[in-house]
Design brief:
Blueprint (H helix, E strand, L loop, with lengths): L4 H9 L5 H14 L7 H7 L4 E4 L5 H8 L4 E5 L15 E3 L12 E5 L7 H8 L4 E6 L9 H10 E8 L9 E7 L1
Parallel strand pairs: 1-2, 1-4, 2-3, 4-5
Antiparallel strand pairs: 5-7, 6-7
Helix pairs in contact: 1-2, 5-6
Length: about 180
């Protein structure tokens, strides 16, 4: 079992996860760690192949993947200064979606890309590799944009789904996609 303080805090908060108190707990933990809650199964699955993470935020997922023996290169447009992130867990290089183009030998990893913004679409368009790992909600959810989902399903076939712990009202999942 991995040392995963976010998962522990999530499990401890489950009794208080409804209403305003739950929203405050989630907001604090998302800022401190990550928007999605990883568990051992998700981290082990991600550690199977080298990753390039775009939009790494605090680097929390990358930290856990590296701790499980995985190889991660992580990027964010504003490492350690993003107003959504309040922690630092892994070395993050400065760079945006275009950095995916440099790592076609790695799995593209996108974890909770910003809602209704082009970041995930731009990363997918830049990426020339064969595998995408995505954590977020599906089409019409609160991650990515519609163009991203259209492009993902047009260019890739989903091959694996791993249910991860979810905050109330969230429907995020880890999915793996292979280029058609």
């Amino acid at each position: 079992m991995l040392n995963n303080p976010l998962l522990t805090a999530f499990q401890n908060a489950r009794g208080d996860s409804n209403g305003y108190a739950g929203w405050c707990i989630r907001k604090d933990l998302c800022k401190r760690y990550a928007w999605a809650v990883p568990d051992d199964a998700a981290i082990r699955a991600l550690a199977r192949k080298p990753l390039v993470e775009i939009g790494a935020g605090t680097g929390y997922w990358a930290h856990l993947v590296a701790g499980a023996g995985g190889d991660v290169v992580a990027y964010d447009i504003k490492p350690y200064t993003n107003h959504w992130c309040g922690g630092t867990y892994y070395p993050i290089h400065e760079g945006g979606p275009e950095m995916a183009q440099r790592h076609k030998d790695r799995t593209l990893f996108l974890c909770w890309p910003p809602y209704d913004e082009p970041m995930a679409t731009d990363a997918l368009l830049a990426y020339e590799g064969s595998t995408v790992a995505y954590v977020g909600e599906g089409w019409m959810g609160c991650t990515g944009n519609l163009e991203f989902y259209d492009l993902l399903t047009e260019l890739y076939k989903d091959t694996e789904k791993i249910r991860i712990p979810r905050w109330d009202g969230m429907h995020d999942t880890l999915t793996f996609w292979i280029r058609k």
